[in-house]
Design a protein that fits this description.
alpha/beta, Rossmann-like_a/b/a_fold, 43% helix, UspA, Universal stress protein
Length: 317
């Protein structure tokens, strides 16, 4: 039975306030779950490249001694970070046996090292602070977070931000086959959680904003018919989605379907629904219906990720 399988999340931490929000989110939602494990990883930065090269101004013995001292210091800092993070999770309800730690030395860049560990460890998701790891922070969003969601990895990425933590989950999906991966992921992670409230949300856009004035007279006449067929297709899709979620032993009143028609801005409608409904977590796919593989992050997903603050966003490949 799916509910008996263990869920294992890789939490990337650098000891920053953003990283602590990730720990708070994980502990609030999953500490009481006996089928949930966490591995905390911290990436120790490498020795500066100029010290890796022969330097005529620096004696070789002294150079290597300095390299070893810096490596040891960086690794110890990474170890201290994961130890403190584990102490936080344990103090907030996680049994020590379900919290593991790893301190790793940076080999490529931080995002690639995290994804490599995620693939090798076969984790169910990677959780990271929305604004990224402090050492790699960027002006718009932490570059580590951005690289993680832009990667072609199949590992879902959880971007954690803000203080809104509750058991309300908004699954923003269109009718593409890849969207079933979003439902599968959420259903697997939350299976058996009697407190979870799940809303399957689909937005059907209006044709009118894209019509020229002289075309609206003709195409506007069929818009109602097209939207009706789209709505019927959406309801059939969500009936199938509900069957998938039903395998997680959710009760009928835990899962609802919400369809919005006539939208002029799909991303804005998803953001508004998340805020108005006070959802603590929004789950969506990297690419939407008709998305090209070359476009790793779809337009709607990008707008939601950048526009929705103070929530957790699960980005599923």
């Amino acid at each position: 039975m799916v509910e008996k399988l263990s869920r294992h999340i890789l939490v990337a931490s650098d000891g920053s306030p953003n990283a602590k929000r990730v720990l708070a989110y994980i502990s609030e939602l999953f500490a009481r779950r006996s089928d949930f494990e966490v591995t905390i990883v911290s990436i120790a930065p490498p020795v500066p490249s100029h010290l890796r090269q022969v330097n005529p101004a620096l004696h070789e013995v002294k150079r290597w001694k300095l390299v070893e001292e810096i490596e040891a210091k960086h690794f110890q800092l990474a170890q201290d970070i994961v130890i403190r993070a584990k102490e936080f999770l344990v103090s907030h309800g996680f049994p020590p046996s379900r919290v593991h730690t790893k301190a790793l030395v940076q080999r490529a860049d931080v995002a690639r090292d995290i994804l490599f560990e995620a693939r090798m460890g076969k984790y169910d998701a990677v959780a990271v602070g929305r604004r990224g790891l402090s050492r790699m922070a960027a002006s718009f969003m932490g570059s580590v977070s951005y690289k993680l969601i832009q990667s072609q990895s199949e590992v879902p990425v959880w971007l954690i931000d803000g203080q809104v933590v509750n058991s309300r989950y908004l699954l923003a999906v269109d009718l593409c086959e890849d969207c079933l991966k979003v439902i599968d992921h959420v259903g697997f992670i939350l299976a058996g959680d009697s407190e979870a409230e799940i809303v399957l949300y689909h937005v059907i856009p209006s044709f009118r904003p894209f019509m020229a004035k002289e075309e609206e007279f003709f195409l506007g006449e069929i818009e109602e018919l097209v939207l009706k067929k789209e709505e019927e297709r959406a309801r059939a899709f969500f009936q199938e989605a509900s069957k998938i979620l039903a395998e997680g032993n959710f009760s009928e009143n835990q899962i609802r379907v919400k369809i919005k028609t006539g939208s002029t801005n799909v991303a804005a409608d998803i953001i508004n629904e998340a805020q108005r409904g006070n959802y603590g977590t929004v789950a969506l796919g990297r690419r939407g219906q008709g998305g090209f593989k070359e476009m790793i992050l779809g337009s709607t997903s990008t707008k939601v990720i950048f526009g929705l603050m103070d929530r957790a966003i699960w980005v599923v490949a």
